[in-house]
Hints:
Blueprint: E1 9-13, E2 31-35, H1 43-54, E3 81-84, E4 87-90, H2 96-103, E5 107-111, E6 119-120, E7 123-124, H3 127-136, H4 151-155, H5 168-175, H6 182-189, H7 202-206, H8 213-244, H9 251-257
Parallel strand pairs: 1-5
Antiparallel strand pairs: 1-2, 3-4, 3-5, 6-7
Helix pairs in contact: 5-8
Amino acid sequence: MSQRKIQQLTLQIHRGQLHRSAQVDDATAPFESVVSEGFDRSLLATLEQLRAEHGTSEPPFPKFPGAGSDGCSDGGCGKCAVLVNGVAQLSCQTTLQSILGKANKKTAALAPLSKFPTATGLVVERQKQRDAGATVATSAAALSSCIECGICFEVCPNTGSDRSFVGPLRLVVAAGSFDDQESARRLSLGEQGVVGCHGAKNCTAYCPQGIDLASEIRDLNGKVRRQLWRSLFRSSSDYASSSAEPSQAAPQERADEASPADGGVVDSSKDD
Length: 272
Ligand code: SF4
Ligand code: FES
């Protein structure tokens, strides 16, 4: 007679920023629960059930994003993103079986997204994401299915509070108006823009909507390079035509006219 394999998964639910603290007491210790059935359910549904069972105990059950009527439970609102064993994913689209199966894990450590400021339980403040979202709807067609979950910002190795890179989503939003907005051009050229992207492509790999942000950024990079070349070419032509015409001006005045202070690309070689 074949014996049925008994599956168990320990859910370890961390509490906000406290899980990074060295101090561990009743208030900071993660909530732990062993689940031994219902592996085809989503992580979000499991959290809902655990909250119903333990919500009133002390310390209280940690808050989690996408709970109850706040979330859609269907992958459409982007609110339920959390870290599962360090990987950002939507809890309503993650089954317990997928956690057990993929990484053969016996423990699922749940933590809030790490690159957004304050957190309570598993819930983070996603103002940065909402700032970007204000223009997502009207920007690049590639973002039409974006649910503003914040996962692309979380998984990018070049984002974080100590980095100036605005992140893949905001960069692609800016790319949508690159051609006709000076502010978008500056964003694309500055350190916080395309220069800040080092091509890791995590944004594309982890986006739950399958949006190829990395390709959008690569296209933007191409536009920026072409614009730089055009500016350089214009500067050299201007310089060549002004050198070819005899000038009445003194040598120092001619040097001033040729300076890049009129808004072109600054040629640092002139500083040598
Ligand atoms: S682009 Fe993808 S990963 Fe980024 S916020 Fe939108 S849906 Fe989430
Ligand atoms: S609850 Fe809406 S995407 Fe998960």
